[in-house]
Design a protein that fits this description.
- The chain is of the alpha+beta class.
- It has a single domain, classed as Glutamine Phosphoribosylpyrophosphate, subunit 1, domain 1.
- 17% of the residues lie in helices and 34% in strands.
């Protein structure tokens, strides 16, 4: 799976971009989309206009960590992995027996967007399994990306020469446009257009960028770790507030 988002959809956190000398634009002239299609002729690409693009292939899948793609009500979602408590979650979100992992993620997001009763970190902690997903809501021009707490699914992100964020389960595809400005997506974290990068395991703590150094001693993006000394200011709306909960996450 592959997604590239314009800066208006996903602003790169400070520290992820380490160099622009070896990076190129992932969106200019459809460079990365064309490269993906040339490697995976049977792939599906979704042009999101100025917001970016998403691409999916079922080629060379790990049978234990399947890739899935679905669209519902202008919500596009790429998912890889397996949810162990999927039966419970389908019941919780009112899905029928044909529902699968990717439809569960879409419904979980829709619940958050439409003022659900739980914060995003609670919704993600309720997912028991191995997963990484990329979701884009075209109606709000908003993204929602997350990975499980153990980093069970290979999942990488980076920033290209124009500041666009690139996400993929294939490190080489991220490196093609981001050069050394990439890193594994942080375990147990989620990224949203409105809130940036947060830990859903430690939602009250800030994240700290730690420079990532490769075997040759060069800085390659950054790893993000929970800073246990720094706590987030509470942004929880008061009971009965008319504020939209989704804007907080």
């Amino acid at each position: 799976m592959l997604a590239v988002f314009d800066k208006s959809i996903g602003k790169s956190p400070e520290g992820l971009q380490s160099s622009v000398t070896d990076s190129v634009s992932a969106l200019k002239d459809g460079l990365l989309a064309q490269h993906f299609s040339s490697i995976h002729p049977d792939s599906v690409s979704i042009n999101l206009g100025p917001s970016g693009f998403m691409a999916f292939t079922s080629d060379k899948q790990n049978p234990l960590l399947l890739r899935l793609f679905a669209v519902a009500d202008d919500i596009f979602c790429l998912f890889q992995g397996h949810i162990e408590n999927i039966t419970l979650l389908k019941k919780q979100y009112g899905l029928n027996k044909t529902g699968n992992e990717v439809t569960v993620i879409i419904e979980a997001y829709r619940t958050l967007r439409d003022r659900g009763p739980y914060p995003a970190d609670k919704v993600l902690r309720d997912i028991d399994g191995k997963f990484a997903f990329i979701l884009y809501d075209s109606s709000l021009k908003a993204s929602f990306i997350a990975a499980d707490a153990h980093g069970s699914v290979p999942f990488f992100w980076g920033v290209d020469s124009e500041g666009h964020l690139v996400f993929s389960d294939d490190k080489e595809k991220v490196m093609k446009s981001c050069g050394k400005s990439f890193a594994p997506f942080p375990k147990g974290c989620f990224f949203t257009t409105s809130g940036g990068l947060k830990s859903y395991e430690h939602p009250t703590n800030e994240l700290k960028a730690m420079p990532r150094v490769d075997s040759s001693g060069q800085v390659c993006g950054a790893m993000f770790k929970v800073d246990k000394e720094t706590r987030r200011a509470s942004t929880m709306p008061r009971a009965g507030s008319a504020a939209n909960w989704s804007a907080l996450y």
